[in-house]
Each structure stands twice: as C-alpha cells, then as structure tokens.
Write a structure and sequence with these properties.
1040 residues, alpha/beta, Rossmann fold, 6-stranded antiparallel β-barrel, helicase, ATP binding, AAA+_ATPase, nucleotide-binding
C-alpha cells in the first residue's frame, strides 16, 4: 500500500492555461514521492486524530491513495458544462470503501479546488441517478378530476373535455410508493414533474379548433412554406384537416383542397398574391383538426407538481397536481388545444381519506423530473472564476488566505469605515452597544473587505447585520476606498448611492430579515428577489392578487363535496408550501412591487401581456420575447431604485453583501457571491456550533437492480460539503469576531443551553429573576415541583412513517392544546414591549401578551400541528400569537415560550445531532417545554437527549402523560370518548343557544363568531385574565 502512495509524481501546474475547463492556481507545490507514509498522510491533511498503526494503517493508506488519484484524475476531467447537462465521471479506479474525510485546512489551491468541485459533481451525480431511478420505478397511478363540475365521482370514466374555453383540465394524480427505493428517488414537494401515462388516445378525442382572425395570416404563410418544402402529398394531407364547420373532416381530398393546391402550384403568381389567396381560403375553412401521423402517445408528457398528502392520509402514496398537456406537434399558427383522454375513476366513499386509501392504482405510466442543479453549476464555476489569473491582488490574497486561515498580506487590509462613512456616524450615535460596538470598530481592519463573524444564539448576529445594513444605506459610499498603501490603482467611481444585498439560506429567515429591515428603516425600499427567471415570469404572466394562487381562480366551483375537499387541499398546498418561491405570493417581491408602484405608462405593455396570458396563450407565446424585454427593463428599474435586496439578489451589483447563517451553506455555495462580486465587501455571519449544511451525498450508498439494470451510488468525497466555510474558519482561528453573550434568554430558562450544551462558551446576560420570569414561573410551578422555567413532558405516543419522514399525530394534538393553555393562562409578556420600561409592573397595561413558538423536528409534523391548530376556534385564543416552524427553519427566530415537539418514539434519527438540539434549546426567551418520550432519551445512542432528560429530572421538571390517544369530540378533552363524557350540562358562553339539551356544546364547536372580536384580542395585556368561553375546565396535563 505504501508503494502505491510513493507514485505520486508532480502534476503539471500551468496557471495561464486552463486544463479542460478547470483553472488551477500555480502556487501549488508538488506532492513529493520520497516522503514516508506518515508524512504523506499529513501532507494530504488527513485527520491526525487517527493512529497510523494496525488496521488503521491500511485504511488511511487507501484514503491517501484515493486522494492522490482524485487529484490526478480531476485535473483534466472537469467541464463545467457537464455539471449542467450530464454526469461527471467519478469512476476512476479509486477504492469505494475509503471515502475521503472532510478537511479543515488545504495544502494548496489545487487540492481545495479538486476536492470541493468533485464533491459538487458527486452531488449532481446523485440527483441524476435518483431522477433516472424514479422514472424506472414509478409505474402505478390513479387519477381524480379536480375541476370538472359536470361529472360525479361515481362515473366509471371521465372524458377530459376542455370545453369552449380550452382551459387545461386539472387532476390529482396518486402514485404508489410502496417500493421504498421509489420513496428515496421521488422529487421534493413543490418540484415540477412530467408524467407519461400508458393510455389509448383515439382520434375521436382530438378536438377541432377554430383559427382566429389574427392567426389566419400565420396559417397562410405556414401552408405556403410547407408546400415549398414538401411533396404534394404532405401538403394535401395537411390541407385536408381544414373544414368549414366543427364537424369531423373528411379524410379524402375535397374540391376546395384541390383548389388550394392549384394556386399554390401556379408559378405565374407572385408570393404576396399567393399568400393572400391562401389566407382567403383559410378564412373560408377556419375549423382545424390536426392528426399528426406517427405520434407516440405514450410519450406525451403531462405537466404537474408534487404536492403534500392531504392531512390524515398515511398510506404509502405520493400526490401530484397535473394538467392536461397540449396536443403534440400542432403548428404554431393555431391556438393549441389540450389532449382529451378517458380515465378510470375510483369508487367514492364517505370521506376523502377513505377514498384515497382505497384507490386502485391501475393506470400505467412513468414519472420524470429534471433535477435542479443550477446552484451546483454556480458552485463549481465559483472555483474556476476565483482561480483565474485576472483577479485583483486583494481577491487573490483572501482566496489564498482561506486555504488555512493562517497568513494574510497586511497591505491588503481594508477599512470599511472609509467605504461606508455612515458606520462611524452610527457608532457615535450609540446604535452599536457592547460587543456589537467592538465588532463594528473591528471593521476598520478587514481582510480585503471580507469579515467573518461567529456568534452564539441570542448574541445578536442578525441584529448586528441589520444595523450595519441600515448604516450602509443611510449615506453614499466610496466603493474603491479603504485600502492601505500598496493596493494597485483602480478607477475610482467616487461617491455613489449605497446598496445592500442580504441573503440567508432559508425562506423563513429571508422573510424575517426583510421584515426587520423595513421596521428599522421606514421609507427605505427593500425588495425580496426570487431569482431573475422567476421574477420575470411572474411579471409578464397573468396578473393575480398577492396571497392567492392562480389555480384558485376558477369560475366553476365543484358541486361535489369530494371534489371540493380535493380542490381546497390542492389550493392550500400551492399557497402554504408547494411554491414558497413564487414571487406572486409575496407583496415584497420585485415583480409585486413593480405591479404596485411602476408608472402607468410603463405597465401598458405588461397589461397586454396579462390579457393575452388569460385569453390567448398561443399568441402570448409568440410575443414572449417582446414581453421579456419589457419585463427586463422594469426589473432593472426596480433594482436600481432599491436600497436593499434580500435572498438570491444577483440582479444588480451591491456595495455590501451580507450572508447570514453562513454555517448552513456549503462552502462552495457561500463562495458564489464572492466569485460574482469579487471586490465587494462581504460579511459572513453564523454560528459554527449550530446546524451545518444539509448534504444529501454524505454517507449515502445504494445498489439497486431495476429492469435488469443497475443503479448504484456510493459517496466518496461528499463529506467535504458538510464542512462549511465558517466551521473551517472557527477550527483554524480564522474567525474575525466572536460574539459570546446571549441577550435573548432570561432567568432559569437559559441554564440548560448555557451550562450543559455550550459548557460555558455562551454567556447569559440576563441571569437574575425579573417580573417577567416570576410571572411565567407561576405557570410552571402549578404543573411541576420545579423552580425552573423549563419542563420535559414524557408523552405516551407513537411515531408513524410518512414517506421518508415521520409524524406523530398524538404529540401534534398535545402541543396545540398546550399552546392554547399557555396563551390563555400564563402571564406571558411580549418582551419587545417589556424591555421598553424600567419598571414593567407599573406599565403592565402597556405590555401586550407574548408569543408561543411550536418547533417540530420534521416538516410533515408541521402540517399535522397546523391542522390541529386550525380546529381551535377563534373564541378560545388569539391564534396570531402562535407560530409553527421546523427546527431547521427556526435559526434567527425567537419567541417568549418555545414548545419543542421531538416527534420520535422509535429510533432517534437526526435528533442525535447536538447542533439541532442547540437550535431548539435557544429559541425561547422565558421558557422551553420539551415534548418527547423518556425511553428514547435514555438510549445509548441518544447522548445529547439523555443530557436533556437528566437535567429536567434532576430539577423535578418531568411530567408523564397518558391518554391523548383518545379525545372526546363533545367536551374537547383527552382521555375518554364522547359516550363516556362526564360533562352533562355544557354551557357555551359564545352563543345563546344553550336552553335546550340538544343545543349544548363546547365553545370549540360553536359556529358563532361574534365574540371575542379582533379588537377584544388586541386589547389583551400582560396581566389580563382569560375570557371564559364555556363551562369546561381544561388542563393539558390532566386526562379524564
């Protein structure tokens, strides 16, 4: 094995000549062949924690050999076009059982580029492999119509007519996913798909379409061009598809077809005369039914989107909303009609769930989708751009510095106070305090304008970034200023209006960031950017109201309750989850702002586009490029007028780029902005001890045989993607500023995260008891013997599988009941109001009630919780105070009380990761309640959850609850069923219908909405008592 390593001859390193498409720096020393094995392992920066003896010797020798072969192979094997169109070959003889370990430091630029880009290529390979596997395994479908109001569900077949409006028929398609291999290969919820059904398309289902007056000229030109380029028989066959009426066309040539052929073949006529006569002929025969010969109907793709399953459906099935496709191969001059086909329908049952569960999936087909690898393409290209010799010296200096974060040339330090003079002004005005003031001062000496901040939860990383953004947009800036003597001369553009791009990896975090910026900077223009193509399409396509979905704007409402339930679910899916990146659903998106604020004369062309999109899509597609040019002008107008852009803002050049939660991004992703705007100052902010990048390839391996073909994947270099830029910087001393003070949490609520999880590395600033912590503590004291504002609920429940994820309906119901009780019974202050007063108790009437945040470990569980929360009536609680998020979506978010639903009762899964526990434990300001199962916390593999349980047990803060698997629909309490309910005289205080026994009900089941009003809820204050809504006494910790 040692001899294999000694063959590592020097590789050619010509920096001026790119090898393939990969440009490598010329500063990389060669790997020396005469080193000992131990030295070679160190040279290749293999983790030194592993001993080089015994069986480890062979393992790490093989790992070293793999890295050497990888460096040699990828040197000339990487083309960036391949990242977009095909797999990069990673099968070059390396050992598949010795994956490369993630590195903190790189020996040279070549090693970094090859390993990181190979990891990106491997990610692309996995996505493509899964997409191909999905196509092979998807085979059994069921179909339910969503929109056709003329038919009932009991029909055996449905004719997908598109009627006179020619609108696409909508369907809910159900796919059998009992094969676990298919579950892994399916696209994400919200991703676009295409389905090819194995159905018979008869000619009688091909519709006749009337050619509009505006399209007759195009039809005449098409016919003339066809005659000039084809044989007479082809033209004759085509003309025979025109007719004077909607009746079926004769298949044999008729007299008027022969007349058309005669003047087309007359050479004595000029072109204009021939086309005019052809146009007259088309006007006389306007009905057109095109039957393309040789069409393979099983290749017709039905477009759709994957949606989440309806709440309560737990079968092994995936759900898609699809539309009928256009007729294949129809000529451009005619408005394309939709395909018509017959589907077998399922039998209808009493409810939606039973109907879906009992569906016979008998329709054959294939599901395909195109993996979205645009980000990976940019990730790979970032290295190519940054390795090019054309970069300025400061860019090269910082790019080399990030190899190991050890040495940086002092002449390239940059003073950002000179670039942004308003930062110093804001410091003098006292807008930066404590640690934030120290960090703001440190911006006077940044490495080429790049600055890395790591901070614990509650330290104000996001707040600091927001205040820096506010300062930057407050004044003009000097884009070329700030360098010390020795920086190469550059053309100075002088003082310019400053612009900030603020990006974060999660949609929820971007939404929080833009809302905070607007509060801090009233009057400033802030826009959410969803990417150029998304914004452009949203701008030039159908005008719709913000917050609604296009599919919801149907004229005909279903007459069948079954169809109505399906429509409600699909519409809700589109708005709530399926396309959170749709700019039309966000009033802060660029396209929405243009619609609302652009001058009327600039919108004239857009209004034409919207009109055609609604009424004449084929005409719209012919003018699409014209509309795109007009839309691009308006996008540029909006970008130029914005002070801050949030999310994927690549539409304009910023003066400052802020990347928040950078630890959640892969290093290659974090470098995209740097590669695009090399000389622009960048602030990287995050917490290296919390959640890192989510990487699909890490430890992934499978070997499937499908249709006698093998589908195999084994990750070899994916581990490097899990090592973020922030984590490497923290490990090697490259963090420029460290924030350690937690200003978020108060009193005993911070004891567990600070002392147990962070082990003193996070310092809590508000440790003393205060009126807020005492008031909240009264609620905790009523339910446990603990003096801590913390609680662990040992709930008897069972997890259930939903696809590759997990749900727990029992815990979902419980956490909602718990949130309602806290919102009603706990004296919970809104800390934003509370902190305004030196003596809060004297101003308690000015302090509103606080917020409750429900955190769940899995995304499908969020759907379960929201479904339970929806059933809570407006009489009981102000539901605007209760929010639901996944743990992964909660960084940078906070609330007064956090309820953490860990969901799992079987295996521990990814909850064993300490970073995820740290995120969940640091969201609350005044108290955290954990809902889990003590048995899972006491297992050997759940080391961190055992710390959680042991801490609460040591402080008498554990409560065990059973009985939530049964709930009474009459009194809305757990532990019994309706016929055993002890509430004999229910009294509802919301309505006056309690005089008769049959009308008695709980307030949750009351349909009256006259009280409490919205004004009643808004009038609630910190110490106000809850309003009694019925005669039932509910305690979430008591089951009867």
């Amino acid at each position: 094995m040692d001899s294999a390593v000694t063959t590592t001859e020097a590789l050619p390193m010509d920096a001026t000549k790119p090898t393939g498409s990969l440009i490598l720096p010329d500063r990389s020393p060669s790997l020396q062949p005469d080193l000992s094995l131990t030295e070679k392992l160190q040279k290749l920066s293999i983790q030194s924690a592993y001993s080089v003896n015994g069986q480890h010797l062979a393992l790490w020798s093989a790992t070293a050999e793999n890295e050497v072969r990888l460096l040699r192979h990828m040197q000339g094997n990487l083309s960036w076009d391949k990242l977009e169109h095909e797999d990069i070959d990673l099968n070059f003889g390396i050992s598949r059982y010795c994956p490369l370990q993630a590195k903190n430091a790189f020996l040279n630029g070549r090693q970094r580029t090859v390993i990181q880009v190979a990891a990106v290529a491997e990610d692309v390979k996995l996505k493509n492999t899964l997409a191909k596997l999905c196509e092979k395994l998807s085979s059994a479908f069921g179909v339910i119509p969503l929109q056709d109001t003329q038919m009932t569900i009991n029909q055996k077949v449905i004719d997908g007519k598109d009627a006179s409006t020619r609108t696409a028929q909508q369907y809910l398609v159900v796919l059998d996913t009992s094969d676990k291999r298919l579950v892994r290969a399916l696209p994400d919820v919200g991703q676009k798909v295409q389905i090819r059904f194995k159905l018979n398309y008869h000619s009688s289902y091909i519709p006749a379409v009337k050619i509009s007056d505006t399209d007759t000229a195009d039809a005449a030109e098409y016919i003339h061009d066809l005659f000039q380029g084809s044989m007479m028989s082809d033209t004759e066959q085509f003309l025979s598809q025109f007719n004077k009426s909607e009746e079926d066309n004769a298949q044999d040539p008729v007299e008027n077809v022969q007349a058309a052929l005669d003047f087309l073949s007359d050479d004595s006529r000029d072109l204009v005369d021939t086309i005019e006569k052809t146009k007259t002929w088309v006007e006389a025969n306007p009905w057109f039914r095109f039957s393309p010969r040789g069409t393979k109907w099983t290749d017709v793709e039905w477009p759709g989107t994957r949606i989440k399953p309806p709440p309560g459906v737990r079968s092994s099935r995936a759900f898609f909303k699809v539309s009928t496709p256009w007729q294949p191969l129809w000529p451009d001059f005619v408005r394309v009609a939709n395909v018509r086909v017959k589907f077998p329908l399922p039998a209808q049952h009493d409810n939606l769930h039973k109907t879906i569960e009992s569906m016979a999936l008998t329709i054959g087909g294939r599901l395909t989708y195109s993996p979205d690898i645009k980000v990976q393409w940019f990730e790979g290209k970032a290295h190519k751009v940054l390795n090019q010799s054309g970069n300025t010296e400061p860019v090269k200096a910082w790019w080399e510095y990030t190899l190991n974060f050890q040495t940086f040339d002092p002449k390239y330090y940059r003073n950002l106070h000179k670039v942004f003079p308003a930062i110093a002004d804001h410091m003098q005005a006292g807008k930066f305090q404590g640690e934030h003031a120290v960090v703001a001062q440190a911006l006077t000496k940044t490495k080429a304008g790049k600055f890395i901040i790591s901070g614990c939860p509650g330290s104000g990383k996001s707040t600091f970034c927001q205040r820096i953004a506010s300062a930057v947009v407050d004044k003009h800036c000097e884009p070329e200023a700030g360098y010390e003597k020795g920086r190469p001369k550059a053309d100075r553009s002088g003082s310019v209006r400053a612009k900030v791009i603020y990006t974060s990896p999660q949609n929820e975090q971007c939404r929080d960031a833009i809302n905070r910026f607007k509060l801090l900077n009233p009057g400033r223009k802030a826009c959410r950017v969803y990417g150029y193509n998304r914004e452009l399409q949203a701008l030039i396509q159908d005008e719709c109201k913000v917050g609604t979905s296009q599919s919801a704007e149907t004229k005909d409402e279903p007459i069948n309750k079954f169809h109505k339930a399906l429509n409600q679910h699909t519409r809700r899916s589109e708005v709530e989850h399926e396309d959170p990146r749709d700019p039309r659903l966000d009033c802060d998106s660029l396209s929405s702002i243009i619609r609302a604020t652009a001058p009327e004369e600039n919108l004239e062309k857009l209004r034409e586009s919207w009109r055609l999109w609604k009424n004449a899509k084929q005409t719209w597609y012919r003018k699409e490029e014209e509309f795109k040019k007009e839309g691009a002008k308006l996008l540029k107008w909006a970008v130029d007028g914005a002070d801050a852009l949030f999310d994927k803002g690549v539409l304009g050049k910023p003066n400052l780029l802020i990347i928040d939660e950078v630890g959640r991004l892969t290093e290659t992703h974090a470098l995209i902005g740097f590669s695009i705007w090399k000389d622009v100052p960048i602030i990287f902010a995050g917490d290296h001890e919390q959640l890192g990048p989510i990487v699909d390839t890490t430890d992934t391996r499978f070997h499937y045989t499908v249709e006698e073909k093998e589908s195999e994947f084994r990750s070899l270099v994916g581990a490097q993607l899990e090592k973020s830029l922030l984590e490497r910087a923290a490990a090697l001393g490259g963090v420029d500023a460290q924030l350690r003070s937690n200003h978020r949490v108060y009193g005993s609520a911070g004891e567990f995260p600070c002392e147990v999880l962070y082990k003193g590395r996070m310092i809590q600033t508000h440790t003393d008891e205060s009126p807020a912590t005492i008031a909240v503590g009264e609620w905790f004291a009523r339910h446990s013997q603990s003096r801590k504002n913390a609680l662990f609920v040992d709930l008897h429940s069972e997890e259930q599988e939903q696809g590759t994820s997990k749900i727990n309906p029992t815990s979902a119901y419980f956490v909602v009941q718990l949130a309602v009780d806290i919102a009603r019974e706990m004296k919970l202050p809104l800390m934003d109001d509370y902190k305004k007063f030196d003596n809060p108790l004297e101003n308690k009437d000015s302090i509103r009630k606080g917020r409750i945040l429900i955190l769940v470990a899995y995304a499908p569980q969020k759907v379960q919780v929201l479904s339970c929360l929806k059933k809570i009536s407006a009489h009981e609680v102000d539901k605007s105070r209760i929010s639901v998020r996944t743990i992964d979506d909660s960084p940078s978010h906070e609330a007064e009380i956090a309820i953490v639903d860990l969901v799992r009762t079987g295996r521990i899964g990814f909850l064993a990761e300490p970073a995820r526990l740290k995120v969940a434990a640091t969201r609350a300001q005044l108290g955290t309640i954990w809902v889990s199962n003590r048995e899972i916390c006491q297992r050997r593999e759940s080391h961190n959850l055992k710390k959680l349980y042991d801490y609460h047990k040591a402080h008498n803060a554990v409560i065990s609850i059973r009985g939530y698997d049964t709930v009474c629909e009459k009194c809305c309490r757990a532990g019994h069923v309706e016929h055993r309910c002890a509430e004999k005289n229910l009294r509802c205080n919301v309505c006056d219908k309690n005089s008769r026994q049959t009308d008695q009900h709980a307030a949750r089941n009351c349909r009256h909405t006259t009280w409490p009003t919205r004004a009643d809820w808004e009038g609630e204050r910190w110490m106000s008592s809850p309003k009694s809504v019925d005669s039932v006494i509910r305690d979430p910790f008591v089951t009867k």
